[in-house]
Design goal:
Elements: H1 4-13, E1 17-22, H2 28-31, H3 35-41, E2 46-52, H4 58-68, H5 72-84
Parallel strand pairs: 1-2
Helix pairs in contact: 4-5
């Protein structure tokens, strides 16, 4: 298993990210505008933010996220999980 430092470096060096936020969640709405800035401060480039207001739209939002940015192997795994949601 990789260390926290190794995982953090992989995230920072992995290219742009797509952030999917459930704004119906308690903290989701509050973080909608802050999260991209907070991630950028940690070295994570956010290419797109997808705001999910309805839980039934989550699977489609994950498919959009995978299609929008080349996430490599993580994208393939995310896509598979999105299909199951």
């Amino acid at each position: 298993m990789r260390s926290k430092d190794e995982l953090t470096a992989a995230i920072r060096d992995g290219g742009p990210a797509v952030l999917v936020i459930n704004t119906r969640a308690r903290m989701g709405a509050a973080l909608l505008h802050r999260a991209p800035r907070l991630l950028a401060e940690q070295g994570v480039t956010v290419a797109r933010v997808i705001n999910v207001r309805r839980p039934e739209r989550l699977a489609r939002a994950l498919d959009e996220a995978v299609a929008d940015v080349d996430l490599g192997q993580a994208g393939s795994t995310l896509h598979q999980h999105g299909q199951r949601l």
